[in-house]
Amino acid sequence: MTGVQTCALPISTKYKGKVYAIPQDSEIRMFFYNKDMLRKIGKSEAFIEGLPEQVEKGEFTLQDLSNLAKEVVDKGAAKIGMIHRPNAGPDYLMTFAAFGATFMDDASGQLLLPLSAMRKGLEWYAWNANNGVTPKNNTSMTWDEIRARHAAMAAYALERLHLTTDDGVCRIVPGDQLIDDHTDAGEVLRLKHRYLDLRRPSLQKNLIVRHQTYQVVRRYLSEQKFLEIETPILFKSTPEGARDYLVPSRVNPGNFYALVQSPQIMKQLLMVAGFDRYFQIARCFRDEDLRADRQPEFSQIDIEMSFTNRELIYKIMEGLVESLFEEIKGMKISTPFPRMTYQQAMDEYGVDKPDTRFTLKIKDATKIFSGSGFQAFRNVVDAGGFVRGLRLDMKTQGEHQFSRKDLDDLTKVAQAHGAKGMAWIKVESPKEGPLASFNSPIAKFLSDAEREQLIKEWKLSPGDLVLIVADTSFDTMCAALGNLRNHLGRKLGLIDEGLYNFLWVTDFPLLQYDADSKRYVACHHPFTSPTPEDEKKLLAGEDLANLKAAAYDLVLNGYEVAGGSIRIFRQEVQSAMFRALGFSEEETLQKFGFFVEALQYGTPPHGGIAFGVR
């Protein structure tokens, strides 16, 4: 098998050690009529020349073909295989004769065909189709239709069979039927038969790309002088934002290990120990509710480095992403990546991982409606809340005309993310005076001054559509408008699917107040450093709600693909962080005493990042 390019084919088998297949479509029975092959088994020229006519007249039946195929196999002239997928489009049936090549058994029991023979068979098939060498058994089809059908089948097969894989090997799933990539099977059924589900080309491609990704990561980081170091999975339970999975200890009854949520503490201890650049492909476990981009166990590319700052981390990580795209996708991407603060992302996009492939942004109208006659807006503003919205101009709307039902559906989208409702305004040509007219259920409550100010500040024109959400909670308002924006991006086709827009989001909040537990919690984790400007405030325990973290996320097309921070490396700052989180000195020593003690021994400034592996 060494050095042979092969293609694994699904086959039908009969008779131990023998392989053959019987075609089910008279249009392609000619694949069994390889004259050289028939001569090898001793057939006369008269038999060979007369065979096609006998088949067309029905004098040579499928059973006769079966016997002929068995004779070919038994006498060692060739082994014949077929791809058979009934009633499923243009690859309905592809049958290949030997063309001077032989199938071979590999260790798995599959049959293999050299790619050269596969290509030759397809080329022969396409040539016959293009030259009309096909029995016309369907009188409703013209020769042009038959040629077009067969040319399409050959082209589809070449694409479907992936004959230009990186290793020069084509692999098709074994079995009597191909597993279709497009399935309506439910997740439970797919997971029950996962071994079949994993035959789907898209899933196999995912695992191959995952493998290739790991190889690029290891090579790039090794070139950057990083060491790959494994850390324990069974560890001490530490509060890191999610619930732990617990594992009882047999040798210590009544005690439990925790499965690590991340190697955070351990990689920081490696920095204390003098391993200046570390990485590993780490398995992580978090007992939290399922989300579209989160499951109980997952892998992350975990990276940490000493004597660093945010700028150096950005540069090295951008180089890693460049290498991944170039080696796996064959694409050049532009660096350095643009940057945006957390506050700007929330104000303009409503989410901390904005999709910048389309430019629709949130606009503020809080001051405009501060004294509004529309009570719903005025009450929110009086309570210190926010009135913001989206402006869809004529270009953004395209050919889409928003009906009342469409607007009701958009309201439901906003409500699904916490909004109490959504106001809409259709801007129309002036009816009286110079101002544009508002077609809206709330128009009668708005003064001319409010209308004029909204038109001026939002640059409204006839044909525009305005969508407004008001809420006393900044987070609720952002969630409603951010998700509404993304929904409109998909609905109106505003997203260029060919773009890969990377973005660094920086300066996240350090702490967030939890009303249920009546204390502050870490927005990232308790080892994240405040920005240099806010370190003094943390040490003094002042203005905790407004402290900024030296944290950063890498966002791609609206998805967070990596996140990290500069870490706390001084004992007094870490102790101040634990105090801000409401831990007593006793609790700190109990849960993190080993870590706080380690910070006494000359800990270098350090920081890191972790890429999620999907």
Topology:
Layout: E1 6-9, H1 35-40, H2 45-56, H3 62-74, E2 81-84, E3 93-96, E4 104-105, E5 111-114, H4 115-130, H5 143-160, E6 170-171, H6 187-192, H7 194-197, H8 201-223, E7 227-228, E8 234-235, E9 246-248, E10 256-259, H9 264-272, E11 277-285, E12 297-306, H10 310-329, E13 339-341, H11 342-349, E14 362-364, H12 375-382, E15 386-392, H13 394-397, H14 404-416, E16 423-428, E17 437-439, H15 448-458, E18 465-471, H16 474-491, E19 502-506, E20 511-514, E21 519-522, H17 535-540, E22 551-556, E23 559-566, H18 571-580, H19 585-598, E24 606-613
Parallel strand pairs: 1-6, 7-11, 13-19
Antiparallel strand pairs: 1-5, 2-3, 4-5, 8-10, 9-10, 11-12, 12-24, 14-15, 15-18, 16-17, 16-18, 19-22, 20-21, 22-23, 23-24
Helix pairs in contact: 4-5, 8-10, 14-16, 18-19
